Amino acid sequence: xxxxxxxxxxxxxxxxxxxxxxxxxxxxxxxxxxxxxxxxxxxxxxxxxxxxxxxxxxxxxxxxxxxxxxxxxxxxxxxxxxxxxxxxxxxxxxxxxxxxxxxxxxxxxxxxxxxxxxxxxxxxxxxxxxxxxxxxxxxxxxxxxxxxxxxxxxxxxxxxxxxxxxxxxxxxxxxxxxxxxxxxxxxxxxxxxxxxxxxxxxxxxxxxxxxxxxxxxxxxxxxxxxxxxxxxxxxxxxxxxxxxxxxxxxxxxxxxxxxxxxxxxxxxxxxxxxxxxxxxxxxxxxxxxxxxxxxxxxxxxxxxxxxxxxxxxxxxxxxxxxxxxxxxxxxxxxxxxxxxxxxxxxxxxxxxxxxxxxxxxxxxxxxxxxxxxxxxxxxxxxxxxxxxxxxxxxxxxxxxxxxxxxxxxxxxxxxxxxxxxxxxxxxxxxxxxxx
Length: 435
Ligand SMILES: [Zn+2]
Ligand SMILES: [Zn+2]
Hints:
Alpha-Beta Plaits; Aminopeptidase; single chain; elongated; alpha+beta; 8-stranded mixed β-sheet; 5-stranded antiparallel β-sheet; binds zinc ion; 10 helices; 19 strands
């Protein structure tokens, strides 16, 4: 019996090896297409829950490959199912599709010129987080797997997700909404994989076992004063002075008020809005920012500290201060299943020989992939997209000083994308052998 098993497993090994060899062949014709899709999506970026064009492009492509497609999930989300010719688990792969309200400054020939209105402001729209690369990579993976589906063990569930950066307030969206709309019940995946491009050396694949990315919560503080003439401040209540005090005190939460020795935390102010004219003390002012944590108890402490500060400033200035947390939703900590990381790291190593890095440092960025990996074991890894040679002297998994995600200068180097296609494909091919 053991002998038969041995023969069987070495047989599947050869089958996989065959598929990996044919992937290497196929990449010569596949990668130019992936790069062309990426450029097209980059030039036509769309904000969260508005990814109509991108979603249509994905749908058309998957249907052309004979893949079963469900569209309109959580507004613009797509799920495709590749049914393998052999029995096995359903493996989910996820790509996010949304862009950011950032004005592109890369000067690339396919740079975005798109503008829109966001939170009342006229803004540029840019794939500043590189989700254009994620979509194109997964379209490429889908093409290879669909063409070879008779050899596949089990099914591959392709998730093209809207609004990873957060949906417009009051709309809901993203991974959470796709789950609420029942995609895991309908397709029953056993495991999920995803990747994110970032400013680490070209073609490096990096993973962190366990808690890998922070929980994120947006907060909003509204300060209500009493409007008056700028020349007679004593006849009103100045919300701007109160706002200045608030910002100063908010910056003492992490540095002075909580113990972060074992638990990193970040509190940032990202928006301040008040006033219309030099000589009017306005009625109202508003602050928004983000809180990043890895520990729910510490997060609660930070919320309490902010409440206390707000109460104190209100008392001291005579303003009314309202604090809201988890505005537009909350992102849990992204956890990489340790057993999965241990068993599947070999696939990542093979996908980019000599350029795999297992990190032990979590990052304070956040990901709503966390909602998926709360439900089933998940593995989320980084793909380095620096220009070849850039940042090579750094530790492979560490961010380099090349402009990174959310920068208007963030550039994804096309030459790294094949490592992404390979990594996701290898994970799909190897997983049924390891579990
Ligand atoms: Zn982002
Ligand atoms: Zn992102």
